[in-house]
Design goal:
By secondary structure, this protein is an alpha+beta fold. The protein contains 15 helices and 14 strands. The protein has helices spanning about 5-15, 20-55, 85-95, 130-135, 150-155, 165-170, 215-220, 235-245, 260-265, 290-305, 320-360, 365-370, 375-410, 420-450, 450-455; strands spanning about 60-65, 70, 75-80, 100-110, 115, 120, 125-130, 140-145, 160, 180, 185-195, 210, 280-285, 315-320. The strands form three sheets. A six-stranded mixed β-sheet has the order 12-7-4-13-1-14. Strands 5, 6, 8, 9, 10 and 11 form a six-stranded mixed β-sheet that branches. It has a two-stranded antiparallel ribbon with strand order 2-3. Strand 5 (about 115) and strand 6 form a beta hairpin. The two termini are about 35 Å apart.
Length: about 450
């Protein structure tokens, strides 16, 4: 029999000699390995869930906003200057197809929505294109369909409703095919968005009403979104929307909105272009966000004919920093869970070392007899690490079974997200072997240093 086989057989007989003690010794390794696997799978599942949540919030999105208007030393803030046009959005789509999946120009309003004797002012009323749902990862509708590009071109008075509006206006009943009034304009409901809940800033993502941007821009609110309710009876915003509703044969509605006061404060923008409030763009991968921002900036500066010494009259924002913070937090939590699990493995290794020391003490006469019959110190040095490694491998195998079982139970019972991890299993086996070798070496070294005469006299 080869040397390895003889040594392994001797180590196995040593383990079977005290089966109960060996089983209790393996218990520490079983718990440690099971904890490592379960914690890593739970940690990876949580990390994936956080990443999916961030992606749904727009981690892969870029938000292109107009610049700021200022007058008399007063800065009116981002988006107050109308510098973005529909043509800018089309140019972004045309020239950055290799980096962007979807682009959706958007106008925003906030006005009253009425159905029957109920009314509600949604947090946002979006005028956009069908690609907006792709950009914001809301393609799965609870009911109905999305409006089409043809309806956008025709300024059709159709819309989608978020779940909050369905609850407030229809008390949970299906709104499909019903007619609502948006700032005194009739809209037909063609679809209902799936529930999404609040975002990380606490805003209700279901309190929205998407519709074709041409309809919102020309029929509902010709002015940009203001802080006040645009359906209020006073103010230019209400007047502009109501003016369009005066449909008498002798009157002709203006095709483009009138310029607002903020536009007059800085260099004027050509009114023949239809302006938008924001352009949403979804990149193909988080890895190309920086490149996409740079190329969008270069493209818009060229289109807006800005000199090198002029500041951008727009801004390109993303959620990279927020994504980075959440990713770092998730990694930290996973690392802490892994450290706790590894401590269990170390405790199991200490238990193995203690049992090996006890085994060396109990088998002192056996060791002395083997050395007297010709066994060399390296033969003794090899035997006890074999026993320790066998105990660790057996415990590791059982730990893998219990760890995977615990992960499955956690996923099915409390419905926590978990993700199978081959890396955790391989790491646990590797750590088990290392623990067996490291913690089994000292007892083996102590046994190999024994004096055969003294060992044979040991009682």
């Amino acid at each position: 029999m080869p040397l390895f086989g003889r040594t392994a057989a001797t180590a196995l007989r040593g383990i079977r000699r005290n089966l109960l003690r060996s089983s209790l010794t393996m218990l520490g390794v079983i718990i440690g390995v099971a904890a490592v696997i379960a914690m890593m799978e739970i940690g990876q599942g949580s990390s994936r869930a956080v990443q999916e949540t961030i992606a749904r919030m727009g981690a892969n999105n870029l938000m292109i906003q107009p610049g700021t208007a200022a007058g008399g030393g007063v800065n009116l803030g981002g988006g107050s200057r109308k510098t973005l046009t529909l043509e800018d959005g089309e140019a972004v789509v045309r020239e950055l197809r290799d980096l962007l999946e979807h682009v959706a120009p958007t106008v925003r309003a906030r006005t009253q929505v009425v159905f029957g004797n109920k009314n509600w002012v949604p947090y946002y009323l979006f005028g956009t294109t069908p690609e907006y749902l792709e950009v914001r990862d809301r393609t799965h509708l609870a009911e109905g369909r999305c409006f089409t590009d043809q309806e956008v071109r025709n300024s059709s008075q159709v819309c989608l409703l978020g779940q909050t509006l369905v609850r407030e206006l229809f008390e949970g009943a299906s709104p499909l095919g019903r007619e609502i009034r948006v700032n005194n304009q009739p809209f037909q409901v063609v679809g209902v968005l799936e529930w999404k809940g609040a975002n990380m800033m606490g805003f209700d993502q279901d309190d929205v009403l998407p519709a074709p941007w041409t309809t919102i821009k020309l029929r509902v609110a010709a002015a940009s979104l203001e802080n006040v309710n645009q359906s209020a009876p006073a103010g230019a915003a209400a007047g502009s929307a109501v003016a369009f509703d005066r449909r008498y044969p002798a009157q002709t509605a203006a095709l483009y909105p009138s310029r607002v006061a903020a536009d007059l404060m800085n260099s004027p923008v050509n009114d023949r272009r239809t302006t938008v409030d924001v352009v949403w763009a979804r990149v193909r991968s988080p890895d190309v966000i920086r490149e996409a921002k740079q190329r969008i900036t270069e493209l818009l500066r060229r289109r807006h004919r800005l000199r090198a010494d002029q500041a951008d009259d727009f801004s390109v924002r993303d959620l990279t920093e927020q994504n980075s913070v959440l990713g770092t937090t998730t990694q930290l939590m996973g690392s802490l869970l892994l450290i706790v699990a590894l401590i269990s493995l170390v405790v199991g290794g200490v238990g193995i070392m203690n049992i090996m020391l006890v085994s060396v003490t109990e088998r002192t006469r056996e060791i002395g007899l083997r050395m007297a019959l010709g066994a060399r110190p390296r033969d003794i040095l090899r035997q006890f690490p074999y026993e320790a490694v066998m105990l660790c491998l057996a415990g590791g195998a059982l730990g893998i079974v219990f760890g995977r079982g615990g992960s499955i139970i956690v996923r099915q019972t409390p419905a926590w997200p978990t993700e199978p991890s081959l890396q955790a299993i391989l790491s646990s086996v590797g750590v088990s072997i290392v623990v067996g070798v490291v913690f089994g070496f000292y007892p083996a070294w102590k046994a190999s240093r024994m004096d055969p005469i003294q060992a044979l006299r040991y009682e």
